[in-house]
Amino acid sequence: MIFVHKLLDSLNLKKIAIKLVSSFSVLLLFLIIFQVFRTLILALYYDLFHELGFQEIIQSFVLGMRFDLSIISVFIGVPLLLLILPFRFSDQRFYQALLHTLIYLTLIGFVIFLAADLLYFSFVKRHITNEIIFLLNDTDYLISEAKANGTSLAGLLLLALSGYPLYLRFARKYHRPQRYSVSAFMFLFLLLVTIARGGFQMKPLSVIDAYQHGNSAMGNLALNGIFTASKYSMTSEWIPREEQQSEKYTTILGFNTPVDHAFPLEIKREKKHPGTQPKNLVILMIESLTTKYVDSLSNNNYKVTPKLDRLIHEGVAFVNFFASGQRSVDGIQSIVTGVPPLPGMPDITSLSVNYSRLAKLAETNGYQHIFITTTRRESFWLDAIAAAAGFSKYYGKEDIPILLDYPNARDRPLGWDYEALMYLLQRLEGMQAPYFAFVNASADHTPFVELQPPFNQYEHGSDTEGGYLNMLHYTDWAIGEFIEKFKDREDFDDTIFMITADHALAHFQSNDPYARFSVPLIFYAPKHLKPHSSRKFGAQTDLLPTIVNLLDLEGSYAAIGRDLFQPNPGFAVVKDGALVNIYAPQGFLQHSLKQIVDRQLTGEDPSGSIKADLEEKLIAFDHLTYHLLSKNRWLSQ
After folding, report:
1. Which helix (H) or strand (E) holds 140?
2. Whole-structure pTM value
3. What is the helix (H) or strand (E) element at residue 557, kind and residue range?
């Protein structure tokens, strides 16, 4: 009878509710913080959501609570359970204060991260994903950003210190000390597990569930940066695609005659012009070089790219070219391996399959190769990426002497473009042709540095458009100096220069889906390439096969892209956070891999055939990449 009495007493719903008041009040506090930041995103970047009606905004906020509660329960679920452990000591004041201190530190961490995500959202029009891994591994860059935003960080620290006693008072107010309750503990445990999964559905909540309404704006409003960062940074698992035969996708994409059906993208190429003088290749990948700011491509009048404008006039320019993603690693990976960055697939830093390595392929054709970055050697894992691509010679900021006077930031971790380009000229003096050089020029990365005349025609700001334009003017000048000095070399006539970006500068763009990914692509080789402007659509994944053909390399390689100099209209597939975009002459389409979430077609489509064709190509591109990489069928060896 005593046992039954205790059991019935523990099942007293009123006592359970009283015991859970403290836990629910903490969950509510966290949820309010998340909703405040969601409101700030809506208010500050309303131009991105102006097409949403009131009902759609409310739906986004309600759906967002699932993502908020999911990540909240993952981080503070254990402390909340420990607060109501069914033991007598769990009501002791010191024990409660200790656990609430841990919860408060989590709260402050969330506020800081959500504030960073709010700022990041203005740059790329989406939440943070696995960029957090690269940032946490680059302390110098984090320190430079902290210095540039010192006032804001000091304010957050002051707020954290002043808020601690208020939080403890809040926690004590809602704490109900009484006899422990096993039922309350079990109920909270089951509740936290359920909301961590996002509900009772078969699969746990995922980023892709935010786009269930088929609207990218609603999805972006529903998500939060902590959820997206944790999903894309804390796991290297593949997000499964629908299983289909790869032959279906290769047919859609036009790969109809593979040499080996087990490796449908692999090409075993022979030289087309044996015995001819090999051509050198110099790739300049410029940080955030964006079509909008290059006057000859955009018909704007910023007047900061006179050298690039001249090279465009004298070279081959692709005016419908797109970055494959929104991070530097996305650009480098696409260019030197031909593997596209796509949602739910590991990038080159954790991709353990066979793939093409451009530098290694060039080496088998007698090329020497060199990779130079303006950043510190280990920044953003560039040293590992360069090695994975086959580069044997690698140099960073530590190796490059400063030549000019930079009074405001001589030793900035991101380095200087002029010095890197001059250093390349120096290293090439002892290198026999043919050679392949890759320069990662990152001077135009935030925080922007105030420069001396003539690179100060716009009002300076460490994170403003004016600050970027001044830095771009400097980089443009540095490229011009580099080309002019290179013309004095005997091998200038046999060198191809390729200039493009790692990604576009999305921060100051409108919500135009084209502007956020459009980057210049310039090939400059007066002796070998007739100047012209191409309207063909392409992306960075098209560069590996383009380079292989330009240099007439022989050997095996694999790429899902196509040679940009071949006569076809082309298309570009790019990674937009958790979404995938396709750009083609017929228009733009955005997909969640479950459904279309946005589209802008260039003409009428009464039958829906254009939309269906774009969707079919996008799905084939994504699913074939997944199918071959996940089964290590990208390249045979």
Report:
1. helix 139-148
2. 0.78
3. strand 555-558
